[in-house]
Amino acid sequence: GVAGYFLSAPQGSMEVQRLEVYFDTVWRTMLTLFMSMTGGVDWREAFDALETVHWFYAALFVLFIACSALAVLNIITSIFVTDAIEVAQKDLDFRMRGELENSRKVVEELTKIFAQMDEAGHGMVTSDILVKCLDASEVRAQFALLGLEITDAVSFFRVLDVDAGGYVDISEFVMGCLRLKGHAHLVDLEVSILEIKRMLQTAVIEQRSLATQLSTVRG
């Protein structure tokens, strides 16, 4: 390699002098490689010196520079990616805490509204009570502040009354409002789905009744 070239080339030639600057000893060779990576020396100068020995050594030098640059780039990229992930995680935690705090406040407000409607203290609100309370603009304003624009009180009650018991307790009321909060347009969709389910239930009951009657007639 370079050592053989030193022995065979004429001493004092321009090529030998240029090689001695960068590759005279193992220590100087390592220093040249390091400076080529860090900008201490223009790696093109070291490349030109190696090219006088053989193109293969020059190609190896270029490969070393390319691999070193990629390694440094990967390290820098990993640092930025790690920092970005940490920042995103902190932001997610912050937003989750904010959402939890907001949900807690909403639950408190809904509990107060339910207590206002349940004047008798029975722990339940019927459709008539809800409709009557929603006739008051103050109550509608309270719902609006929570992101619930209620246009049809009866439909709203039917959405809340998931078990079709004719009344809603505090749990049904709060959970139903949370489910619809911020998506008031979903009330109509919920009503439609509820109507379809009830129609299917009615159809099944009528079919069973008809089947029973036919069995009786045939018997």
From TrEMBL:
Q: Name one Pfam family in it.
A: Ion_trans
Bilayer topology term: Multi-pass membrane protein
Residues in EF-hand domain copies:
148-183
Record's keyword terms, sorted: Calcium, Membrane, Transmembrane, Transmembrane helix
Q: Which residues cross the membrane?
A: 55-81
- According to the lineage, what is the superkingdom? Eukaryota
Presence of the UniProt keyword Nucleotide-binding in the record: no
Q: Name one GO molecular function term.
A: calcium ion binding
**Key word Calcium present in the record?**
yes
Task: Provide the protein name.
Answer: EF-hand domain-containing protein
- Protein's organism: Noctiluca scintillans (Sea sparkle)
